[in-house]
Amino acid sequence: MKRICLFLGLLVLSVACNIPTSARTPLSASSTSTQTPPETATPPPTLVISPTPVPLNFTEEFNSDLSGWTFLQTGGESSPTTVIENDMLRVEMASIHTWYFGIHNANIYENVSVETLFNGSPSGSMGLICRYSESGWYEFNIASNGVYSLLLGKWLSDGVAQYLPIATDSSVYLQPGNMNYDIKLTCQDQTILLSINGKIFRKLDVAHYGLTEGKVGITAASFEDVPTTLFFNWFKVDSE
User: Fold this and answer.
1) For 70, which of 5, 35, 149, 221 is 20 to 30 Å away at the CA?
2) pLDDT tens string 72-81
3) Does residue 175 register a pLDDT over 80?
């Protein structure tokens, strides 16, 4: 009886020692074999990250990036350089008679106020845009010669814009050679209000031009003296 037990034990041990080792080797990461999941298996959910929407009312501090902006140009032989520098938007223009503007793409407004604080070299102009669309836009500019203007802009073709003056004049709030102002453009129904350093100084009826809604933005231009360096400290949008 002991001999039978001993024989059976040796037989079991012999079988265990002769099991192929490949049966215990896991598949490598490069293996082309696949596994079919059971029919009842549910695939894992796909994670979708949506961009954070920009509120209707906001202030652009120019301290991160310019992903929300589209920059366009008309005139000029070279393209301006636009960078964020010391929490400001710096626009550098190397060629004369360059008209450059940035459109914020987040929202479309009917009634809105846009405001900015800017400074720059004593040559050129800076300003604001409201109701920008393919149909046209309103543009409020302050020039280094102490003259302000409200313009109706319209694209004629790619890179070619036409400007119709709605109002152009001097103001006691502007000094030739000074390019350091806080300006505000308000589009309210068929009326436009122009402000300099917190003071509304002009009210204009624009019903004749027919623009009712659009995006908002900023403008910059060079005249005869280049290079022209201009800074936007911030850009504020307040919908009515």
Assistant:
1) 149
2) 999 999 999 9
3) yes
Q: Which CATH number does the domain housing residue 111 bear? A: 2.60.120.200
Name the more confident of 165 and 39: 165
Three-state secondary structure call for residue 11: helix
Torsion angle of C-alpha atoms 221, 72, 88, 63, degrees rounded to 10? 180
In a domain, 219, yes or no: yes
Residues paired with residue 142 on neighbouring β-strands, in sequence order? 126, 148
Q: By the 8 A CB rule, do 72 and 158 touch?
A: no
Average pLDDT, integer, range 186-213: 97
pTM across the whole model = 0.78
* Tokens found for residue 191: 């009326």
Domain-embedded: residue 88: yes
CA distances for 11 relative to 5, 75, 239, angstroms? 10, 95, 89
* Cβ neighbour number for residue 5 with a 10 Å cutoff: 9
Amino acid present at 240 = E
Q: By the 8 A CB rule, do 220 and 37 touch?
A: no
Instruction: Compute how many other C-beta atoms are within 10 angstroms of the C-beta atom of residue 52.
Output: 6
